[in-house]
Every structure is written in structure tokens, then in C-alpha cells.
Amino acid sequence: QVQLQESGPGLVKPLETLSLTCTVSGDSVSGGSFYWSWIRQSPGKELEWLGHIYYSGSTTYSPSLLSRVTISVDTSKSQFSLNLSSVTAADTAVYYCARLWGRRGFDHWGQGTLVTVSS
Amino acid sequence: QSALTQPPSVSGSPGQSVTISCTGTSSDVGSYNRVSWYQQPPGTAPKLMIYEVSIRPSGVPDRFSGSKSGNTASLTISGLQAEDEAEYYCSSYTSRDTYVFGSGTKVSVL
Q: Euclidean distance between the first and final Cα of chain A, in Å?
């Protein structure tokens, strides 16, 4: 049973960097068929895809966040991480990590973690 | 990149059918059979219900079906049940090798 679990601070100050980690169990992030993704949902709003990483380290990011987002992977720990720099209140959201199955869809999700940007 | 367009809400009585539309462009929905649908009850993570336009993952009831015509994809729930009440989102792969989600549709069971 594949499980994903987000971890990281729930409160980040404006202009600082938001950092989250997703730990994957029941599967290996080194599996060739999957991309490891970050998706967020601002309160009461739709889902927003932020980007994903392949086990090789190859990344693809949302054009709207390209200058601020970095995703990395640590295959030895079966983890991947999100860094979002220079955050503002608009970055307050529930952040989900998810497994993208080829190009088919996001078939497994973490439970999500709320990150609030506030001083 | 703009979100795919979905109706804000649809509703139906138990046993009826409802259809949710998801309209994109020729750069996403219209060009790829990489449309997926997600069910999200309040306070929970989304769940994959349909992938590649019309394929149901194991465990998803067959009353959920998907289709696509041109730039618009659709999700139909037949034989609506109380447990189907949730927010539903579509998603599509795009020509920029990125993903875009829909604006979301709240399904209410009357």
C-alpha cells in the first residue's frame, strides 16, 4: 500500500522560504513509471499543480512559479522535497504531495499539510 | 496558466444522473487523452476517479464514467448516491509538459 506523508513547518514568515518534505512508503521513489509531485489548494479554492520530479532528478515546474519553486529528491530516504521562496500571504494553502502515474493521473496523495504565511 | 472551466455546482436526487463538464483548450484537453477526474469530500485529500479520459482505477464504482469531445471532457455519475456528495476536479496534461486543474464542481445530492 503506497503512502505519502507531508512534513514541515505550519507557519512561515513573509519573504522567507517554505520547505516541505514528502516521505513515501510502500513504494520506491526510484520506480521508473512515476513522477513525484507537489500540488496546493488555497482555502476555498481549486487545486494548483506546482511541479514534479523524476527519480533521476529531472524536474518540471508550473510556469507561474518557475522563479520561486524548487523540487528535489533523496532516493536513499525515499523522500522528495519542495522549496518555495519569497512567500506571501497568497501562498497560504494546504500543500499535498502526490504520485503521478506516468501521464495518467495522480493516483496516490498525502493527507495534506496546511502552511500559513504570516508574521 | 488558467484553470480548466467547470460549473460551480450540480445537483440531483438519489438515483438520478449528473454530468460535470470540463472545458479547456487545444493546448490541453483538446490535444491529449490525459484527462483525469478527482473526488474530494470536505477536509480530505483528492481521490483519483477517472484517468485517460474514461478509465476507472480499481475500486471505483462503475456508475462513474468519463468522456471527451473536442476541448471539453465530461464526468457522469449515474445512479447518484448520498456518498457521492463532494467537490470534483478535472485535470489535464498540457502542451507545455505541465498539468492544469479545473475550477471545481460541488455535487449535491438532494
A: 39
